[in-house]
Amino acid sequence: MLRGFYTAASGMLSQQRTQEALANNIANMNTIGYKADQTTLRAFPELLLQQSGSQNIPTKNGLNLPVQHTIGSINTGVYVQETIPNFSQGDLKETGLTSDLAIVQGGLPDETGALFFTVQNEAGEPRYTRNGNLTVDGQGFLTTNQGHYVLDQAGNPIQTNGMEFTISPEGLLQTPEQTVQLGIAYVANANDLVKEGNDLFNGEAGAVPPGATYSVKQGFLEQSNVDALQTMTDMMTSYRLFETNQRVLKAYDESMGKAVSEIGRIG
Asked: Domain Flagellar basal body rod protein N-terminal, which positions (predicted)?
């Protein structure tokens, strides 16, 4: 019976964490370039039960041999193993602004691969984002709205000296003074990336491999890929599962109460 308490409680905790991830997705429905989180549930390791005892051998001195009988395996519930962003392409919205950019992925060599803009965080380290809502700061550098420098292919901040620049579908940024290649980074397994604040991802990335196709669209923004209807449905399903585990926990509690009060009184 005590194992039932743990199983029901673990189910409630896992659904609570699933609800938190879904609620965060709903809250970021209008966040540019946001990638919806998905939770994965996993069962705790199974335990193998064995019965230990002894067998009396009818001999002159009375011999007892230890014996074990396998009863079977049991499971002690589930837990949220990890939260993985969904890197599917979001819808594009036309803004007409020169500094708004969106990456449109084409064919990639890896099913789990994804492309990102490369930016620089406060510590000067490279980070990756799909939020192309950019601006030009007071010193003429191309930055995100949070003030992170957008990097070129060589890992340097991009100087535009104003809003007079164009970007080709290949990611070439052209100003009257120069032409530079945007730092488009490729991650073979985007699931290895770690989410940070301000729509940034941390992890290992490299150059776009041969054969990969994409285009950079100027004057467009990639919207969040949160499916509102599906997310609300998932929230209702998770809430019902939470309630089910709650009722199971209550039933175990009532049974335990009867065992303590009624059975103990009869004895």
From this structure: 5-35
